[in-house]
């Protein structure tokens, strides 16, 4: 649905050039939620704005739903952009307009009739849970309600792609949870492809199917979240599940992305004559799947063979530095 190849964006200042994007390849499948995570200044917002050509890339190409946007301009580009909705960090609502009028604004620009606008606004406010706020003004809403209005407005033209620019970073944890749940529901109900940027790993963990880590204008790694969690040396895995800080000898961190019916720890002790001491663990929901994490101490002459056995079983085995 989104196919960006070799994206470059250079800002030319008085005395230097700033390379905000440096050869970024981004591929987002239809119907998935794809998260780009990174610190401030990593280039995330620039990437998002290049996807819908609010910023025109210095180099590279962007295609959305089969249309190469970088080859379009004028009316053709504006028409293509109607298939892309955008949600902003600080809501960007028109304070002098009611909730209904804010949601209707893109439809007015597109030339929709008054009756069509009324019907569509009603549908959207029902969809985001604000049917009773149609006549309210932004100043009368909470932060979460404002963001729901922003989401409704972004969906007004029935886009296939939704871009989210730090949509939850200005919200409290409970409200963040409700907005993430709304985005996941919209993704399922509307078969909506969502590309979101964030600096919060918990957002990636909660709703993303695929993810990329961005640093200094470059994607350091990317892929399906569960695949990255099972990849040795993955930056995303280390961020979501930091290795334990311990001075105990022979400790390993085990990560598994599927359930096991067999008692692996008991098998280790019998099969390899090793001592296994479970120091801690947890099971979390990541990308709609259960991911387990165990910190264990494994000691004995056959320790290396026992670790190889766990790897063969599909566990990610990491040794804290």
From TrEMBL:
SUPFAM superfamilies per record: ACT-like, P-loop containing nucleoside triphosphate hydrolases
Keyword Transport in annotation: yes
Record keyword ATP-binding present: yes
GO biological process annotation, one example: amino acid transport
GO cellular component: plasma membrane
Gene Ontology terms for molecular function: ATP binding; ATP hydrolysis activity
Keywords, ordered alphabetically: Amino-acid transport, ATP-binding, Cell membrane, Membrane, Nucleotide-binding, Translocase, Transport
Domain ABC transporter: 5-241
Stated role: Part of the ABC transporter FtsEX involved in cellular division. Has ATPase activity.
Family: Belongs to the ABC transporter superfamily.
SUBUNIT field: Homodimer. Forms a membrane-associated complex with FtsX.
Name of the protein: D-methionine transport system ATP-binding protein
Protein's organism: Spinactinospora alkalitolerans
